[in-house]
Every structure is written in C-alpha cells, then in structure tokens.
Design goal:
Elements lengths: L1 H12 L28 H20 L3 H4 L4 H10 L1 H19 L2
Helix pairs in contact: 2-4, 2-5, 4-5
C-alpha cells in the first residue's frame, strides 16, 4: 500500500513528458548560411567545367597534372577527393563559372 502511495506522489511531482517547464527557453532557429555548392556533386562540377573549358582550358586555369596528361573524369575525381587544395581551386573555378553564366 505504501509503495502505491509513493508512486502516486512521484507521478504528481514529475512534469509530463509533452509539457515544457515555464522557465525553459524555446529554441530559435539560427539563420542558415547559404552554400552555393550545397547539393552539387564533385562529378557534376567537373563535367560542367570540362564541357565549358575543355581539358586544355581547365589545365591552364588549374595547374594539376591529372588535367594535363591523359585526363579523365575518373582519375580527376580520385585526385580531387584526396587533395583538399586542388578541390578548393576547382570549386572556386566552378563558382566563378556559375556566377558569370547567370549574368547576361
């Protein structure tokens, strides 16, 4: 009998799961920073750059061996995924291409 009374008292003191205490702050969403590369795959970037500049033009703009000698999408992706500085250069070139395409 005393165990049931303690259980009832404990339930009365505990807040319900779906209720928030009054002194708890409500979470506000932080403004998200828009990333222009969000959702763009590296392979898609590379294909767009090759379609626009060609391998020779791409090799002139980004000095990487995989763009100069026997270039292919597969070998370039392999290199760019493992080399952050090269990937950053390719991403910047892609952003530059993307912004200049929008302007007529």
């Amino acid at each position: 009998m005393t165990f049931q009374i303690l259980k009832i008292r404990k339930r009365a003191l505990m807040p319900k799961v779906d209720e928030k205490p009054e002194n708890e702050k409500v979470e506000t969403r932080k403004p998200e920073i828009k990333d222009p590369l969000h959702g763009v795959k590296l392979a898609d970037m590379l294909q767009d750059l090759v379609a626009h500049y060609g391998w020779e033009g791409l090799a002139q703009r980004v000095d990487i061996r995989c763009f100069k000698f026997d270039p292919s999408i597969k070998s370039s992706l392999h290199f760019l995924r493992r080399t952050p500085w090269a990937r950053a250069k390719v991403e910047m070139l892609y952003l530059k291409l993307k912004t200049t395409r929008k302007k007529p």
